[in-house]
Amino acid sequence: MSLIVQKYGGTSVGSIERIQHVASRVKQATDQGHSLVVVVSAMSGETDRLLGLAKAIQAVPAPRELDVLLSTGEQVTIALLSMALEAIGCPARSYTGAQVHMLTDSAHNKARIRDIDAARVRADLDAGRVVVVAGFQGVDEQGDITTLGRGGSDTSAVAMAAALKADECQIYTDVDGVYTTDPRIEPHARKLERITFEEMLEMASLGSKVLQIRAVEFAGKYRVPLRVLSSFTEGAGTLITFEDDTVEDAQIAGIAFARDEAKLTILGVPDQPGIAHRILGPVSNANIEVDMIVQNVAADQRTTDFTFTVHRNDYDKAMAILHDTCAGLNAREVLGDPAIVKISLVGVGMRSHAGIASRMFEALAVEGINIRMISTSEIKISVVVDEKYLELGVRSLHKAFGLDQAGEGKTT
Ligand code: ADP
Ligand code: ASP
Ligand code: MG
């Protein structure tokens, strides 16, 4: 008998029928003798609907009030799932984040989990009940409701599994595992049986939203056995492993991409110590996260150009700041492009294989895709390209690296 934490995402609990289907799956596991904690998201579309209501009143709603509003989505699902379980003879009890003391910091809308008091959950499990917990939400030290950022129910589930020392944390979603890339973009994407924790961390941080990055970080820190599976079909899904034992000699585990990036350039800044700080200091003071940064070598020995990327939502704000900096530094000009995307190859196999970057650039060149920026680390290579090349870029790389080999198409 094991203790299992299961998490069901929005699509999996998107209607009464689907909630009943989840209930029958949960009951199946309890009938096999397992103890179950089930973390659920809001019904699909609900968080966006609530956000829309808030924005109809205020363009930038107060973060504290937004959390009070957004957390209601998950509260609906926990109650309905508990009822659905009781209705089929499976004793269950629902809890909000606050009720299970999912203690977070006070960073509303992007709070981090600090601690969970699992005593109440354990008591229910010992009494033979299924515990249904609202994902995505917590409570801070003042007792205020917080939320964990979009996709945060993944993190609630992993944190719950860590606190309970569960045997496995199973993330049930609308695909049957982690694929070589988003199967919505590349129909030939291949399901991975295993992916290393390190690769999953990169994939998530480079834009693959199948798992929230903080959930992967949490799983790594507390070594939570983590699996991604489908709530609609049977199958073993994808296991996130902690060993560095890549299957075969695969060089690339997968391709991640991030839409909604934007690029800003300041031309003709003096080539002196302290300039990067003068440019990026005000940007980070405005709480704008900067991703890639490139500074050209000064061609004329006196001035240089400086380019960086931000999330597209922050583009206008970053542009205004950069114009001020331009005037202050007597720089030549500010340029911007809000229609770019980032595509990344990820794989621990890169450590032992040379020439991956040049193969990547060749594959993009064959399609006439211009690379605007490049950044590399030990296990990833990212390029920034024009938004219109997102699909073509992902598909051509998928093919060039043999990820959609014949006969190994999508397994559902
Ligand atoms: P949930 O609501 O269950 O949390 P999400 O929409 O957050 O589901 O995440 C699942 C989605 O992630 C899939 O439908 C898929 O389009 C997307 N996705 C992106 N990259 C990948 C990948 N590499 N493998 C599988 N799914 C991916
Ligand atoms: N309901 C939240 C969202 O849509 C959290 C989650 O689903 O993980 O982002
Ligand atoms: Mg999700």
From TrEMBL:
PROSITE patterns: ACT, ASPARTOKINASE. One of its GO terms (cellular component) is cytosol. CDD domains: AAK_AKii-LysC-BS (cd04261), ACT_AKii-LysC-BS-like_1 (cd04913), ACT_AKii-LysC-BS-like_2 (cd04936). Pathway: Amino-acid biosynthesis; L-lysine biosynthesis via DAP pathway; (S)-tetrahydrodipicolinate from L-aspartate: step 1/4; Amino-acid biosynthesis; L-threonine biosynthesis; L-threonine from L-aspartate: step 1/5; Amino-acid biosynthesis; L-methionine biosynthesis via de novo pathway; L-homoserine from L-aspartate: step 1/3. ATP binds at K7, Y8, G9, G10, T173, D174, Y179, R184, K209, V210. The keyword Cytoplasm does not apply. This is Aspartokinase. It comes from Thiorhodovibrio frisius.
